[in-house]
Specification:
Blueprint (H helix, E strand, L loop, with lengths): L3 E5 L3 H13 L3 E5 L2 H10 L4 E5 L8 H9 L6 E6 L3 H6 L6 E5 L5 H14 L2
Parallel strand pairs: 1-2, 1-3, 3-4, 4-5
Length: 123
């Protein structure tokens, strides 16, 4: 089974770091900084997990991205990276099949563990 991850992060240095670690752990990773393009990618390919920032420029948040992709792919799991506390995300509503990583400072071990868990729990 191909373990495909869609990474959506507008900070290039963070995206490169996350992609490097996920690729080294055996995942196939596509990256785009543009949430609208992420919706396009997700409509054309099947991803097991979407790793995304919660707050993004350009009019679409991580929550908007989640809702858009989940409207046609109910199996995909989401891992949210955020600077805000996890409590803020919970206040925004319950997001099924998702997990949260506090971003600052970003722990690559936590990213890998959350993505592994998302793939394990998607079966």
């Amino acid at each position: 089974m191909v373990r495909s991850v869609l990474l959506v992060d507008q900070k290039q240095s963070t995206a490169e770091l996350v992609k490097t670690y996920l690729t080294a752990d055996g995942y196939e990773v596509d990256h785009t900084p543009d949430p609208s393009k992420a919706v396009e990618y997700a409509s054309r390919s099947q991803y097991g997990v979407v790793v995304t920032d919660l707050v993004m420029r350009g009019g679409m948040s991580g929550i908007d991205l989640y809702r858009e992709i989940r409207s046609y792919d109910v199996q995909v799991r989401f891992v949210f990276m955020l600077v805000l506390s996890a409590d803020v995300l919970r206040l925004m509503g319950s997001l099924e099949r998702s997990d949260v990583i506090k971003k600052e400072p970003l722990s690559m071990n936590e990213v890998i563990c959350k993505v592994r868990a998302a793939f394990t729990n998607s079966r």
